[in-house]
Amino acid sequence: MLIIGGALWTTTYIYYIFLSIMAQNIGKKTKVAYLRAILNQEIAWFDQVNPSELSTRLTEECQSIQRAL
To answer: Which runs of consecutive H residues, i.e. helices, occur in 1-69?
Structure first.
C-alpha cells in the first residue's frame, strides 16, 4: 500500500506540474494576443478607454484564465 500511495502521489505531483506549465504558456499567449488586439484598434478607441485601466484589465483577465485552467 505504501508503494502504491507513493506512486500515486508522484504521478499526481507530475500531473499538477504539467498543468501549471500549460496554464502559464496559455496565459502568455493570451497576453500577447490581447495586446496585439489592443494595438490594432483605431485611434478613436483609445480616446474612449482609460489607458491605466487597460493594463489592469489585461492582467486580471489573463490571471483569471490561468486560474480556470
So the answer is: 2-39, 43-48, 51-68
pTM: 0.67
pLDDT of residue 27: 85
- Reduce the DSSP state of residue 41 to 3 states and report it: coil
Q: Is 52 helix (H, G, I), strand (E, B) or coil?
A: helix
Nearest to 32 by CA among 7, 10, 67, 65: 65
Distance of CA 54 to CAs 37, 39, 44, 51, 68, Å?
A: 12, 11, 15, 5, 21
Cα(67)–Cα(52) distance, rounded to whole angstroms? 23
